[in-house]
């Protein structure tokens, strides 16, 4: 039997595409929290040659001992939560889980390809700014945003540990992933809101997205290429938030939000929603986006790459194709959107 690849975060958006895009003869181990929930996914049974491994990235002692020799590890698992509430769990998974995957790779003598984020380096106040693979972390900007900051800490500590243990570690930094197949409706959440008529306003800032299928093709090449670089950026289309939703409108035939809320007002409303919710029921009301989301929305996200095209053959497809495919998939699969669209 060929040595299998292990993928953490197998039941997520990127994990799904990684498994669906592999060569049919490639053996895979899918690290999942719950084997029954994995089996219940309508797409997992169609994969073939994928064996679920129940466990978590922070609990490797419970499951890693019985693994066969691994050909490589795709580390896609992460807690993506844009809030300062409950940040401890986020740091534990995103940092400690990454270090655990590096240690596991050292035991198996294999490479780790980790899906990080453009938000570690590419967050700016100016819409024209960009960051390539040689850019410094934008730690001062994102220090108060636990998800992006946890990814910076994970990258820094994992790189040091990989150097100590002799592990080949490759970071991929894409912006927001869009495309078909977001079965948890997380990456596509704001498109879902717009299609349902529940996105009443925007906050002036930027958006940067790339097609998940292009990122996954690059991830496989990063695993298979003989001498990968330590970091690759996978840029897509960077635009203003108004331009982005105008493109969604063109792809969907749905009117884009026209109201732009001033940042100061949005920030105060977000803080009030969080404060009232914590006082009344122990969590934000979620009537309004949280403070971290509002803060992030007022920034711009610029990314460029010096190496991805030459080394990985990475080319981002037409962004309108991505948005059309995203909208078509949501209309066919999201319960509320599907029912309203068919009616």
What does this structure look like?
- By secondary structure, the chain is α/β, with parallel strands linked by helices.
- The chain has a domain at 5-180 and 209-235 and 302-317: NAD(P)-binding Rossmann-like Domain (Rossmann fold), CATH 3.40.50.720.
- It is 43% helix and 15% strand.
- It contains 13 helices and 14 strands.
- The chain has helices spanning 13-21, 35-40, 87-108, 139-142, 146-165, 189-195, 212-224, 241-252, 263-281, 291-297, 308-312, 319-333, 335-342, and strands at residues 5-8, 28-32, 50-54, 72-75, 111-115, 123-124, 169-173, 176-178, 202-203, 206-211, 231-233, 237-240, 260-261, 300-301.
- The strands form four sheets. A seven-stranded parallel beta sheet has the order 3-2-1-4-5-7-11, sandwiched between helices. It has a three-stranded mixed beta sheet with strand order 8-10-12.
- α3 (87-108) packs parallel to α5, α8 (241-252) crosses α12 (319-333) and α12 packs across α13 (335-342).
- The N and C termini lie far apart (50 Å).
Read across the widest sheet, the strand sequence of neighbours is 3-2-1-4-5-7-11
How many DSSP helices? 13
- What is the string of SSEs from the N terminus onward? EHEHEEHEEHHEEHEEHEEHEHHEHHH
- The stretches of 5 or more residues where confidence is low (pLDDT under 50) are none
User: Span from first to last CA?
Assistant: 50 Å
């Amino acid at each position: 039997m060929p040595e299998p690849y292990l993928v953490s975060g197998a039941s997520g958006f990127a994990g799904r595409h990684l498994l669906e895009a592999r060569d049919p003869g490639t053996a895979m181990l899918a690290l999942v929290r719950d084997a029954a929930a994995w089996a219940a996914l309508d797409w997992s049974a169609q994969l073939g040659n994928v064996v679920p491994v129940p466990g978590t990235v922070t609990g490797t002692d419970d499951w890693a001992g019985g693994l066969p020799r691994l050909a490589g590890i795709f580390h896609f698992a992460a807690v993506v939560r844009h809030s300062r509430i409950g940040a401890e769990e986020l740091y534990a998974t995103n940092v400690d889980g990454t270090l655990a995957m590096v240690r596991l790779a050292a035991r198996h003598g294999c490479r780790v390809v980790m899906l990080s984020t453009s938000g570690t380096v590419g967050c700016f106040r100016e819409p024209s700014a960009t960051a390539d693979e040689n850019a410094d972390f934008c730690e001062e900007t994102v220090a108060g945003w636990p998800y992006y900051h946890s990814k910076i800490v994970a990258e820094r500590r994992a790189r040091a540990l990989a150097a100590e243990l002799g592990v080949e570690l490759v970071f991929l930094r894409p912006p927001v992933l869009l495309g078909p197949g977001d079965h948890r409706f997380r990456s596509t959440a704001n498109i879902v809101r717009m299609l349902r008529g529940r996105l009443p306003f925007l906050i002036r800032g930027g958006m940067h997205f790339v097609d998940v299928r292009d990122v996954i093709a690059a991830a496989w090449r990063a695993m298979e290429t003989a001498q990968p670089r330590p970091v690759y950026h996978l840029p897509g289309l960077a635009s203003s938030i108004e331009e982005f939703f105008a493109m969604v409108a063109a792809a969907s035939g749905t009117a884009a939000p026209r109201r732009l809320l001033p940042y100061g007002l949005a920030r105060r409303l977000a803080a009030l929603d969080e404060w009232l919710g914590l006082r009344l029921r122990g969590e934000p009301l979620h009537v309004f986006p949280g403070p971290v989301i509002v803060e992030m929305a007022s920034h711009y996200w610029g990314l460029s790459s010096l190496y991805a095209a030459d080394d990985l053959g990475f080319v981002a497809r037409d962004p309108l194709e991505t948005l059309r495919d995203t909208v078509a998939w949501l209309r066919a699969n999201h319960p509320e959107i599907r029912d309203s669209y068919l009616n």
